[in-house]
């Protein structure tokens, strides 16, 4: 890793909890100036209480273009002509449920945050990344390689993010800007507890036929997700991989994080569709962040 870390400023979205928070604090500990994206003043105060003076809260909602524009301007002013070394697109949500009964508004919200929001932030900060030959780190998931039943919306958003990542990596190559995907497996993070709460609210509003057709399978999924979440690796392990992707001289284009992410990637690569469907239906979920 490079030794001149104090000049390598990084922006991280979704830094209030989970992987984003772990990344913000880890990079701060390494001595990088960190702009930590949050949406609430309370989250900003909480981060500042445990971080150094080198961490600056950045109020940004990836679905609100005005806050994105304002955040980019705040960072530009703070850098005072220096370039931005890294952008970590981490903000995200997880929507689940049987696709037959999924309200389309929920699917739109999933893409609005996990896909369109990431691109809006990337577009806003690219002018700051270009002078420093900075790096774009997209927080994907093993669900960007293999889709689990009843997690279709989340997986679709991550497949889309992976595609945008691949296109952007080639488009930005002339300027030496690396574009990298991080693909965690089962991680201890609040995203799935939030998702299960949302799923329960959605389930309560579904027709009786949905419960009749999918109730037992959904109950099994909830149990599997909770089990995976409790047994997942700490978010700090993902933060270490993000730091490597940002600071190593020659980064990989993708980083799988966690044993079950590597297993899921192997299943997606090796098995034909029908056999993979059988494996997935028995295992139900590989779990992810």
Polypeptide structure, described:
The strands form two sheets. Strands 3-2-1-4-5-6-9 form a seven-stranded parallel β-sheet, sandwiched between helices. The protein has a two-stranded parallel sheet with strand order 7-8. It contains ten helices and nine strands. The longest helix is centred in the middle third of the chain and has 29 residues, at about 105-130. The protein is of the alpha/beta class. Helix 4 packs parallel to helix 5. About 55% of the residues lie in helices and about 15% in strands. Helix 4 (about 105-130) links the parallel strand 4 (about 85-90) and strand 5. The two termini are about 25 Å apart. It has one domain: Rossmann fold (3-Layer(aba) Sandwich).
What structural category do the secondary elements indicate?
alpha/beta
CATH class: Alpha Beta
Total domain count: 1
String of helices and strands = EHEHEHEHEHEEHHEHEHH
CATH homologous superfamily classification: NAD(P)-binding Rossmann-like Domain
What is the CATH architecture descriptor? 3-Layer(aba) Sandwich
Spatial separation of the terminal alpha carbons: 26 Å
Task: List descriptors.
289 residues; Rossmann fold; seven-stranded parallel beta sheet; two-stranded parallel ribbon; 10 helices; 55% helix; 13% strand; globular
What's the structural blueprint in terms of helices and strands?
Elements (H helix, E strand, L loop, with lengths): L9 E3 L5 H12 L4 E5 L2 H10 L4 E5 L5 H15 L6 E4 L14 H29 L2 E5 L12 H20 L6 E7 L2 E2 L2 H14 L3 H24 L1 E2 H13 L6 E4 L1 H12 L2 H11 L6
Parallel strand pairs: 1-2, 1-4, 2-3, 4-5, 5-6, 6-9, 7-8
